[in-house]
Amino acid sequence: MIAPVSSRLRDSFTSRYRRQLFSVVSVVLLITTLTSGCSRSAYRLRADRDVFHIYQEKQAEEAYTIPPLPGVQVDPRSRFYDPSPADCPALPEPQPTLSSYQLPDLASAPGMTAAEASLSDFTAGQVEAIPTPQGQPRAEIASPSDQVPLAETETNPAETSEAETSTAAPGITSEQRLADLIRQQAAEDDALQSADLPGPPSAGTPQDLTAMDGESKEAESSDEADDDEADEDSDLRIVPIPLQYWQELPTSCLPRMMEFDSVQQEFQRTVPEMGAAEMLSMRSDAPRLTLPMIAELATINQRQLQTQKERLFRNALALTTQRYDYVLRPTIRGNGTGLDYTHARINSASSSGLLVPTETAVTKTTATAGQFLAGFANDVVLTFNGPNGFAANVSSDLLFEFQQTIFQRDVVFEDLTQAERNVIYEARDLIRFQRSLFVDLATEYYRLLLTYRAIEISSQDYFSNLRAFREGRERFRQEDKNTTLVQVDQFEQNALSSRSSLVRACNALESDLDTLKLEIGLPPEMPINLDLSELEALTASDQLTVARQLVMRTLRSLRETDRRGDQADGGVIDTEAMVNGASAVVSHLQDSLQIRAKVDPAARLQQVQQEIDLLAAKLKLLESRLICDIKADQLQQIEADPRFQLSAPIAFERTRELAGDLLVQAQRAIRFRRLQNRMQPDAGGDSQQLQAMGRRIRQAIAQLKQMEDTWDQSDPREQLQRIEQMVQMAVDLGQQAEALVQQATAEVLPADSAELQAVVQQAVEQTLELADRIESSSISSLGQTDPDQQEAMLLALYQRLDLANARGDLADQRRQIKLAADDLKSILDVRVSQRLSANRILSDPLDTSADGNVTRLSLALDTPLNRRIERNVYRATLIDYDQARRNLIQDEDEIKFAVREDLRQLRLRRNQYEISVARAALAYQRVVSTRMQLKLNIGNVVARDFLESQQAFTSALNSVAADHILFILDRIELFNDTESIRLNAWGYWQQGQGESLSLPPLPDFYDANPNPYGRIPEFLHYSDEVRQNH
After folding, report:
1. Which of 100, 332, 663, 937 has the fewest CB atoms below 10 angstroms from its CB?
2. pLDDT in the model for residue 23
3. Which are the contacts of 180, defined by CB distance < 8 A and separation ≥ 6?
4. CA–CA dist 494, 949 (Å, integer)
């Protein structure tokens, strides 16, 4: 009876335990499935989120110096962007390809609207969007659409891109189109006629600064505007460059030259039938980049910048690891369970067993440098078919342990402390790198602009020397006694040297463009170009400064002439010299205003322009009056002197020339009176009377022209037969011209010479007053106010991020002294542990005899009997601290030296710029003078004089451009050395293109650096020595 009951009870227990076993196994499998880990993306996103929170925290701590920090996410427009899944990236195509990357849409491109500039939710480029003390730079240069070059108005590159694209055949580059056109034209035209005289160079040459004043004696049309004379010298017409010389230039150089309006004009003179759209298609069709676009491209493609971002990100990741030690966390390993099934057969008896070990533990480093550990272990042992049948045993251990070090707390904190500070260091390095990157990009950009400028100047220098060579060669062929073969060879050698310089400049440009591509992360094979709007603005500014210099030089000469006239005996003044000087001043003032209007279209110059035009018309009238008086006096003296007997042909020439000069004087008088009536309506003057006089003057000019044509078309025999008749016609025409002059000048010029001197004196005084009013500013337009040197050095010492890192390094080395000193002490650790154990037999769950409870308190002391290694480490840390302190002092000295050197360089650049401007003005006058003297064969001027003057002018123009651009670069370097650059979202400094030297105001040091030696975590219980140093 008992046996069956016992058997049924055993079967019941066995069945129940098997169900429990099944449940345990099922739970273990479920736990294993659920705790196998999250997805890759979940881990990545958690890491990014933790790093983002650290960035926000550090930026809040150092809000004055650290802007919002970028992540490591790659811009979708970047070459580095991988469209494959981030957590399972695909390997790229192994076969290399060319031109696989296209220039993306850029937010900083000219004309980009705010909506187009927004890039969805991508904010990795937000670099410096914090308010910081800023200086007050001058107004920015006008937008590209407002910038106009000196010579002619050039079409905005952004507006002409469509025209270029539409006229370009697919697959054909601009170099090929230009080369084909030149070859086609060269095949059609065997040669062009050689010119009589070379014309003045276009933009970039002296004729850009002031036009040569000449007079046209041809009849004008019937309307009022025809009485306004064109200030051109018809004898100095610009001769086209033959196509064969264009063909000699490299095809890669021609599109770069065609970027400039002056070169396009030269080419259009050669091929006049070419339309504007076809001319624009000859330019390079590569994308045109501005400095903001270059900075944005570098922000999304620059390799070193991405590496810097990743270094910061890695340090932030390391900090999350260190911070995780101070939260209650599961241990790295030992959290899990397992199954161990065993089947054994011994002595013909078999037994089976299942072991289910389970353990878990959590740990934490406390704010006092203690280590807390809590662990739980549970083992379930199930035995099947054992001697006693089925048996089960469950043993559990619960452990609580705390260990506290007494003397080495700061040592325990050091990993977290350094990790916290490393994030700040790397953030400062990143911001400093971005600002330095902008400086490097600006340097590359402006040096490229300088190379472009050299190409334009070298092109015009080549054209000018080429014309001089062809003119000299033609004169030599015509057996001009003043032109020798040696001079022709000199001209040719100079033309070849100019072409060589031009080709070298084009080659240097291509090399520099490739260097820029590598710097910003673009593939070298990608064609790019620069938007030359800023170069045009700089050129116009330089030309304005040179024009002002010409005004000042001519003004000084005029004042000297005026002073000599005042000191002359009897009050006799050199009226001719004074009128010529005043005319030159007014001409330069007109050029200066014209350039100023292009540099600053918003300037109100209409009233001043009208005053200058009226004064210029008056001076031209006076000049004509003096010329006519001199020629009339000379003619009367010769006729009255019995020693001279004028031949009829000479008398005809003299009379005809005087009649033409009188008619020019009458024309100028009419023009002056019309301008006077427009500006001074109350001054009197009948417009109908002026129109009638204008018609009579034009009729007289037509008669003079007809008489000259009749004389020129007659053969010598016919001229001798008709000489008396022609002389009489010239005398009659001269008398008619005198009557017209008297009628036209009756109200504006006195007939008496003494009264005329008073009018001349009044005109000179008006010129001086007007020049003083218009050109009252300094010659140099560069920043005139130098920053205070002491404040600039202090500003740099207060704000430099690398110096802040150096101070932090010094504090780190000081903390290492404390840590090394702690290692010299005894090591005293206190450990407390509590273990709770339980062992249960499932067949008798009420049995608790196996329960255990163990409490342990231990103290471990390591005495400092052998601290030789620690002693040496301690001594080395003292040396390291001294070295770090010296490095800090050296960094401060180097920063102060850099600021002082920047200010010296800026003063030097400004001084050199003023000298270069003076050289350019003087060289211009020299070129004009030697060219005219060489043309007229006067003054013992030879070809070498003209060549030297042309070379001096070219060198001066290059120096003006170079000194201006170098001043801008030195200014950027000064702001970078004082840490005053603040970048926008795409790595561009908006005040970088200014010329003002106004630095931000000097802040209080502790406002700019609230924690000069850096922060340490607030919740940790550092020693007093460490805490007081931070």
Report:
1. 332
2. 61
3. none
4. 12
Written as six digits, the tokens of 394 are 């469950």
CA within 13 Å, CB half, 171: 0
Q: Are 976 and 796 in contact (CB under 8 A)?
A: no
Show the tokens assigned to 779.
């010659």
- Sign for the pseudo-dihedral over CA of 257, 262, 268, 274: positive
Distance CA 37, CA 33 (A): 9
Cβ neighbour number for residue 360 with a 10 Å cutoff: 15
Two structure tokens written together for 650 = 């000479």
pLDDT in tens, 498-534: 999 999 999 999 999 999 999 999 999 999 999 998 8
At residue 1000, does pLDDT exceed 60?
yes
* Cα gap 103→297, rounded to integer Å: 9
Is pTM beyond 0.85? Reply is no
- The residues, any chain, with a CB within 8 Å of residue 593's CB and separated by 6 or more, are 605, 608, 609, 612, 774
d(CA 136, CA 601) in angstroms, rounded, equals: 22
Residue 783 in contact with residue 971, Cβ under 8 Å?
yes
Show the beta-strand stretches assigned E in 387-538.
Answer: 389-405, 529-530
CA 537, 539, 540 angle in degrees (round to 5)? 65
HSE-up of residue 638 (Cα within 13 Å, Cβ side): 14
**Residue 688 vs residues 88, 581, 694: alpha-carbon distances, Å:** 90, 34, 10
Question: Which residues have C-beta within 8 Å of that of residue 561, sequence separation ≥ 6?
Answer: 574, 577, 578, 581
Rounded Cα gap, residues 622 and 382, in angstroms: 128
- Neighbouring residues of 923: CB distance < 8 A, sequence distance ≥ 6: 949, 952, 953, 955, 956
